[in-house]
Design a protein that fits this description.
The structure holds 2 protein chains of 2 kinds.
Chain A lengths: L1 H9 L2 H17 L4 H27 L7 H20 L11 H20 L3 H21 L6 H31 L15 H18 L7 H9 L2 H26 L6 H25 L3 H21 L3 H27 L14 H4 L1 H15 L5 H15 L3 H27 L13 H19 L2 H11 L8
Helix pairs in contact in A: 2-3, 2-5, 3-4, 3-5, 3-19, 4-5, 4-10, 4-13, 4-18, 4-19, 5-6, 5-10, 6-7, 6-10, 7-8, 7-9, 8-10, 8-11, 9-12, 10-12, 10-13, 11-12, 11-17, 12-13, 12-17, 13-15, 13-16, 13-18, 13-19, 15-17, 15-18, 16-17, 16-18
Chain B lengths: L5 H23 L3 H21 L4 H29 L4 H11 L7
Helix pairs in contact in B: 1-2, 2-3
The chains are: A mainly alpha, B mainly alpha.
């Protein structure tokens, strides 16, 4: 019986990772109350995550097709499962009537980013990305039950992602017109008749998707959304939307970089975006006085490291970018879940972390693991990603990439160290409530926090999977 | 744009111009409904450019569907902003949020 279930999950893993959340979204939206909706959403997210874990296992053994999609789609499904499970403790962010729709939109986000990774036609990628973006705006707007400021954050996200939609459409059209290829696979082999216009189209598409990943300097929406949105919405934006968008940037880059007339220009663009994100994100994180803004800007800096690996355009660089993507996802989920559970009148103020490590040791450990991973401390996934990035940078003759990685780690010591100092070396204020964090919130924080450290201790499987996925630079054989 | 006729170039350039104006408006306009209009203009501008390039109907229809979805979400957002803040001017909304947020304790 179990074998039948495993085979049924294994055969069409990509389809399950796309369809299970979308079908689950329809079921969730039709549920009568928040609790029933959460159960339906959790079930569908766990089905997608189960398929994802089987897919990841096959990838680590080298049994599946190569390519970024095979690596990143399971990561998105696992992040979505964590977000949906954690949302069970955060349903108060939404009104009772809005909660089923918000959970459904979270699932739509997950399914859409997975679909964007698996779509082969440009128009399919465009539709999937825009569906995810619209769902993201919807989730943030629906989280205004506790704080109307979420609507302000949603407006900023709406304006910028709407403008990016126009940019993506024009960019995809220019690529199509310039290469005559309607599919991503056709790009590396296409005879490009207008290289300049095609490169402009590539730049538009990459910038458009980078905006959804909160990469600097297009991250103007991130501060407002992260500091004013409801906890569940912020968690969904950080762990599904930003991770999904970063994965799609890597996926598109893997098809664009091998194209002879486009590779150099696209590589330069990714490198510039990555370097700006590292610098701007690090500086803003160091100056942040709001926990969730710190999380947003730290994620921007880490995302910059992901792009720097991709900018190298080599298999080693891409493998480093994929490892960095896992470290990013692990740290972001652990930090945002634990921060959402931190007690206090304003859970986004830095002082809510004062003494949190003593008041709630497990949640504090998850935040500490995230902070250490942001720093790139040894025996964490962040260290592994940074090490891979430096190896690939120096090996590829791009010392500045290695320098940027070191710079990101040094900046991480400031803002990550500040978090750890507050966790363990400060006393909670007299008005601080005891830290009674919900188990459904604590479980994903701990699992992802432990993963962020376990990967650093025993990295073989992840390194093998990343190397196998990156070996298909240019996409899996059609 | 080698081989492109002037009749193709003019609507393409007009579309790009509309896209840029719309993108700036969508990101920076002081009024929420103007931002929605900016998003609509940005997508319509890109559709005009794509039509000038001779893109197929499926691409144009997909773009139009996304524009419609964005406008629906944007108008719904503007209505909720009006209900919650009593206005849709971004400066007033920012001021209301800043006033509602207690001052941060020093580091």
């Amino acid at each position: 019986m179990m074998q039948v279930v495993l085979d049924a999950l294994r055969a069409p893993e990509p389809a399950i990772m796309v369809l299970a959340p979308l079908i689950g979204a329809a079921l969730t939206a039709s549920m009568p109350g928040p609790r029933a909706a959460w159960l339906a959403a959790t079930l569908s997210a766990l089905v997608a995550a189960a398929a994802a874990i089987l897919g990841a296992n096959s990838l680590a053994k080298g049994e599946t097709a190569t390519g970024v999609a095979a690596f990143a789609a399971p990561l998105i499904a696992c992040c979505a499962a964590a977000v949906v499970v954690a949302s069970g403790a955060l349903l108060k962010d939404f009104s009772d009537r809005a909660a089923p729709f918000a959970l459904a939109l979270i699932l739509v986000m997950s399914g859409s980013w997975s679909a964007a990774l698996h779509a082969d036609r440009w128009i399919g990628v465009f539709l999937a990305v825009e569906t995810a973006s619209v769902a993201c705006v919807g989730v943030v707007a629906l989280s205004a039950a506790q704080d109307r400021g979420a609507l302000n954050g949603a407006l900023r996200l709406f304006g910028m992602s709407g403008a990016a939609a126009g940019l993506f459409l024009l960019g995809a059209g220019l690529i199509w017109w310039g290469t005559g290829a309607a599919t991503l696979h056709g790009l590396s082999l296409a005879a490009i008749r207008a290289p300049t216009l095609t490169l402009l189209g590539v730049s538009f598409v990459l910038i458009s998707v980078s905006l959804r990943a909160a990469l600097a300097p297009m991250h103007g929406w991130a501060g407002a959304v992260f500091s004013r949105g409801g906890h569940a919405a912020v968690l969904a934006v950080a762990a599904i939307n930003c991770v999904g968008a970063l994965a799609v940037v890597l996926h598109l880059g893997a098809h664009i970089l091998p194209a002879p007339a486009l590779g150099a220009g696209a590589s330069t663009l990714l490198g510039v975006l990555g370097a700006i994100s590292v610098v701007v994100g690090s500086v803003q994180s160091i100056g942040a006085k709001n926990l969730r803004r710190l999380g947003a800007y730290a994620a921007t800096a880490q995302a910059g490291c992901v792009l720097l690996g991709a900018a190298l355009g080599s298999i080693a660089g891409y493998a480093a970018a994929l490892v960095q993507l896992v470290a990013y996802a692990g740290a972001v989920v652990a930090l945002q879940c634990a921060a959402a559970g931190a007690p206090g009148a304003r859970a986004n103020a830095m002082e809510t972390m004062d003494g949190f490590g003593r008041r709630s040791p497990l949640a504090g450990a998850a935040v500490a693991a995230a902070a250490l991973s942001f720093m790139g401390a040894p025996l964490t996934a962040g260290f592994l990603g940074r090490w891979q990035l430096m190896e690939a940078g120096i090996g590829g003759g791009a010392g500045w990439v290695a320098a940027a990685g070191v710079g990101a780690s040094l900046a991480g010591v400031f803002y990550g160290g500040r978090l750890i100092e507050r966790l363990y070396f400060r006393r909670a204020s007299a008005t601080a409530r005891p830290a009674g964090i919900s188990r459904v919130l604590l479980a994903p924080a701990l699992i992802f926090g432990m993963a962020a450290t376990a990967i650093g201790v025993a990295p073989e499987a992840l390194l093998r999977a990343a190397a196998h996925a990156a070996s298909g630079l240019g996409g899996p054989a059609p | 744009m080698s081989g492109a006729s002037a009749s193709m170039l003019a609507p393409f350039a007009a579309g790009v111009l509309i896209l840029l104006v719309g993108a700036v408006s969508a990101s920076t306009s002081p009024n929420a409904l103007h931002r929605v209009a900016g998003v609509l203009a940005a997508i319509c501008g890109s559709l005009l450019s794509l039509a000038a390039l001779g893109m197929g109907q499926d691409v144009l229809l997909a773009g139009a569907a996304v524009a419609l979805a964005q406008v629906i979400v944007g108008v719904a957002l503007a209505v909720r902003l009006q209900e919650a803040y009593g206005g849709i001017e971004v400066d007033d909304i920012d001021a209301a949020d800043a006033a509602a947020e207690p001052p941060e304790r020093g580091e």
